[in-house]
Amino acid sequence: MKAKLVLIALLLCQLGFSQETHNSDDSKPKEAKYTYTKIDFSVPIRANQYAGEIDPYTGEKEPWFLPDGVSGRVGFGIKANDWISIGTNLGVDWKASECLVVVPLFGSVKINPKIGEDLRIFVEPGFGRALTIGSNQLSGYFKKISVGVGDGKGNFGLYLELCQYGFSKNYDYKIGSFSLGMTITL
Fold it and tell me: Model pTM?
């Protein structure tokens, strides 16, 4: 019984005594110097099944690739230094061939090394969740990787993106897209 009382007394003493120090600078909110906002716009493309054939109405050859929707995303994050950043992204992807509107929410890491005075290359993998808007009510994981080139300051870039949604409609394969896009970092 004495042992229980001693343990309770020690526990109460530990909970009651603490010391907290404040500097005068702690009252001011600190702003992160390396935060960023980015806007991505891309167009998914798909192979044209009639590529190379001559259109009987126009007399022109059919193109190899056709646009397959529109994708727009906004991201917020922190730059660790000039060539590494971590962010959270939210967007809307429209896949025309699948009759699907998807909202991806994902995290990404961007590696953006400088390879010349006015040129940077970047790789940006991302992983998160994807939800559909509409009557489909599909959800699943979202995976993407973007590879591109940008200006020396890292503010503007053109990229190729491959992404996959973790769901399918009525078939065995997962829905995905291959896109061409541009990014603007503010």
Answer: 0.75
